Amino acid sequence: MLLLSFAVFGQEKPLTQAEYVKMLYAFQKNTTTKADIVDALRKRGIDFEVNDGILGLTRSKTANDDDIRSSLEEAGRRHANPAAAKPPSATEADALIGKAREATAAALDDMPDFVVKQVISRSEAFAGTGNWKPIDTVIVATSYSADKGEQYRVLAINGAPVQSETSSSYANIEGSTTGGEFVDALKKLFDPASKTTFVVETTDTIRNQPTLVYEYQINIENNRDGGIGFKTPNGSGGYSFTSVPAGEKGRVWIDRKTGRVLRISFDATEIPRDFKVRAYTSTIDYDCVDIAGDRVLLPITSDNRFTSSDSYGGQTKLFQDRNFIRFKNYQKFGSEVRILDDDTTPEPTPSPTPKPE
Question: I want to staple 304 with a disulfide (CB 3.0 to 4.6 A). Which of 45, 222, 233, 323 is the partner?
Answer without folding.
Answer: 323
